[in-house]
Design brief:
Blueprint: H1 2-34, E1 47-52, E2 57-62, H2 63-74, H3 81-100, E3 113-114, H4 126-133, H5 135-150, E4 155-159, E5 162-163, E6 168-169, E7 205-211, H6 212-219, E8 228-232, E9 238-243, E10 246-249, H7 250-257, E11 264-269, E12 272-278, E13 286-287, H8 288-296, H9 301-308, E14 313-316
Parallel strand pairs: 1-3, 6-13
Antiparallel strand pairs: 1-2, 4-5, 4-14, 7-12, 8-9, 9-10, 11-12
Amino acid sequence: MARRRRRRRRMTPILKWIVLLLLIIIGLPFILIWGVKFPRQQSQVPIIQVWNADTGKLMTMTLEEYVCGVVAAEMPVYFHDEALKAQAVVARTYAYQRIVNDVRIAEHPEAHLSTDYRSGQAWVSTEALKERWGLIDFLINYRKIKTAVSQTEGIIATYDGKPILAVYHSTSGGRTENSEHYWSEALPYLRSVADPYGNHSPYQYTTAVFSINDFLKLMEITSLGEVQVVERYPSGRVKTLEAGGKWFSGRDVRQRLGLRSTWFTVAVDQGQVHFSVWGYGHGVGMPQYGADGMARAGYDYRQILQYYYQGILLEKIY
């Protein structure tokens, strides 16, 4: 009996180490992910309804939870912390102005937004991120995202006391665009500004080549005729292109051909139509690679936002 008691005592330290190891394994995810807390008074945070385009279901969540999913979907996680903060503010602002103005998705009027980026901005679930990154990288990356969201909690961009239309894009190509040159409305805070900060973008300059037959088909013309840029906006982006005896807007050409932006040159050579393209996206508002470049140059998220959105204020609404 004495020997048995001594054996039990010798096993006690082993049991302690097992318990400690289990606590570390179970507790580490909570420390990494939930160590960054959202506001204690969750009732102050607006609720948003989002249509999940993947599952075909309506989701209800807080605005801060939604912003985490947008930042993860819209901006590379390796971007500078200040760029991620800027992305969090514009994502929150874009969603908030839809909530207060009761703007809904046409196909799903029960929802303010969809997870489909074509209806506004992309969103991704934590489950999808775990599959994409793996568990360990998910724990590290999602903590970085939650930190950016938490440190800008409740902050939106306003102009004249109202939340702005916080549009953004990937890469400007060297200069952003006035809102009325891509859409119809001229907004005072969406003005064209020089953007020397996004040169590290892989989309700063790209090319696209089409056979003449493919070009005719996509442009819905019967003959090539003279293919040339007729007029440009001051930013350099194409206002009007001539092809097959017809005139097309730069935006129409981009959409028909799937070009990355409306800032392009065109040439016909050896039976092909060649496009050289600068930037990626509509060019209005904050370029994400520009935000990352500004952050790496020492600017904080407030300076980044106030540069790309002219005359705005950053206000904490909860």
